[in-house]
Design a protein that fits this description.
alpha+beta; 6-stranded antiparallel β-sheet; two-stranded antiparallel sheet; 8 strands; globular
C-alpha cells in the first residue's frame, strides 16, 4: 500500500510503476504484457484509488504504452495543454475521453485497471509531461536518423 499512499504526494495524473499480474484462481504469477505501465490515471468520484467488491484497492486509466510512439507523443503534447488549462484539477474518465481521442472500443481499448496492493504495484513515480515529451521527441528523431 505504500505506493498508493505515495500517490497523494503527486498532484499529476501520469504515473509509471512496476506491475505484476497474478492469475485469478491459481494465484500464480502470469506474464505481463507491460511490466512498467505508463498510466494516465482516471480518477473515480474524485479519488485516485477505489475499492472493488472484493475489497481490493484499484487504480485505473489509460496505459499509454499501448499507443504507437508517434501517437503517444501527440497525446502527451495534448495533455501538456489540457493540464495547463486545468491546473490542479484531477480529471476522470469522461473528461479525459472527451478531451483526447483514445482507443476505448472493446477490441482496441488501452483502458486498464490495476490492483494497487503493494506486492503488485511497486516503485510508483509521477511522470513529468514536459520532460517525457522531450524524451519521446528525441527518441523518435533518433529512430528517424537510423
Amino acid at each position: 500500500m505504500s505506493s498508493i499512499k505515495n500517490m497523494s504526494k503527486y498532484a499529476g495524473q501520469l504515473y509509471t510503476f512496476g506491475y505484476t499480474s497474478w492469475g485469478p484462481k491459481d494465484k500464480k504469477r502470469r506474464p505481463n504484457i507491460d511490466k512498467q505501465p505508463l498510466l494516465l490515471l482516471a480518477v473515480r468520484q474524485g479519488q485516485k484509488t477505489w475499492r472493488a467488491k472484493n475489497k481490493n484497492p484499484y487504480v485505473y486509466g489509460f496505459n499509454l504504452n499501448y499507443l504507437e510512439s508517434n501517437r503517444r507523443l501527440e497525446v502527451i503534447q495534448q495533455l501538456v495543454i489540457i493540464f495547463s488549462e486545468h491546473e490542479g484539477e484531477l480529471l476522470g474518465y469522461d473528461e479525459i475521453k472527451g478531451a483526447i481521442d483514445l482507443p476505448t472500443a472493446k477490441e482496441n481499448s488501452i483502458f486498464r485497471k490495476y490492483d494497487a496492493r503493494g506486492s503488485k504495484l511497486r516503485r510508483l513515480a509521477q511522470v513529468d509531461l514536459n520532460t517525457y515529451a522531450v524524451y519521446l521527441e528525441d527518441a523518435l528523431s533518433n529512430d528517424d536518423d537510423d
